[in-house]
Fold:
Amino acid sequence: MTLREFLSDRLKRIALQVICAGLATLFLFATGTQPGVLVILLIVFLLVFLTVNMFDFFQQRARLLELKSILDGLDRKYLFTECVPQPKGLFERRLFDLTRLAGRDMTGAVSDAKASQREYREYVERWVHEIKAPLTAARLICRELDGDTRRKLTSELSQIEAHVERALFYARAENPEQDCLFRQIELEKIAAQAIENHRSLLIQNGIRVEMENMNCAVYTDEKWAVFILGQLLQNAARYRGAEPVITLFARPLGRQTRLIVHDNGIGIPAHELPRVFERGFTGSNGRMRGGSTGIGLYLCRKLAVFLELELRMDSQEGVGTTVTLTFPAKENLTRV
Structure:
């Protein structure tokens, strides 16, 4: 709180005090009080006026700084009213009592919302694990079918599995720290696992995957990294070109490692590129080809922030898309 703000807040009170002092001066002058006495009285009034208001200003500013310091030190800001020291003055006590009641009601609402969110997430995770059994059975049944029917049904099952996996990771992405293990792992292993997870999709779309200089070790969570790379492979397959090729290669950058995923697909229009990581954004290509949810890249961005990965996408329409993942050095990670 600045002095200007304080005076602005008390403007009406100050104006009333000045008016009262002026009326008292006129009354004393009209009753025959000597001008010298009036001057002395006005000086005394002015000193008392300044002293009282400056004392209130410094007292209120100190109180606000104290409360702000308490608020800044809290991780959960909504518990502020439960942590403040004993309020000073009747008005402040009544005000804090009302604020505390509102805060407790909000705390209860937050707790209920978190409990509901946790229950929903647990339900989604159970559902995902339960749905994997019939999907696996369906894949086994597909082996007994003829070539064309088997190929079509396998393609549909692959899409279902991709959506199921995305739902699972979407639920877990709200609290990724509960299911995360940072460790050193070969980048080639991450890439191989992501390719294996989407092998059917890549084969069905005639996509050739090339890897270069992938014998680099990075420090990250394997499962989340595999998911991010898998989403990039799915997008490359969805928006493939005539002779689709996906190239993965790594470049050491001191203690960091940069993974580059490049495809020769249809690319992304320049005006849509800044929005590709927004939740629910599908773009003109997604609407034209169908099946896009606008969730995959949103999850990639969200998980990349958690893993402290630098995620950048460059694209040229009709030429292809390049996604760059920069893995941080172990000593730079704040979550280890």
Observations:
- The longest helix spans residues 90-142.
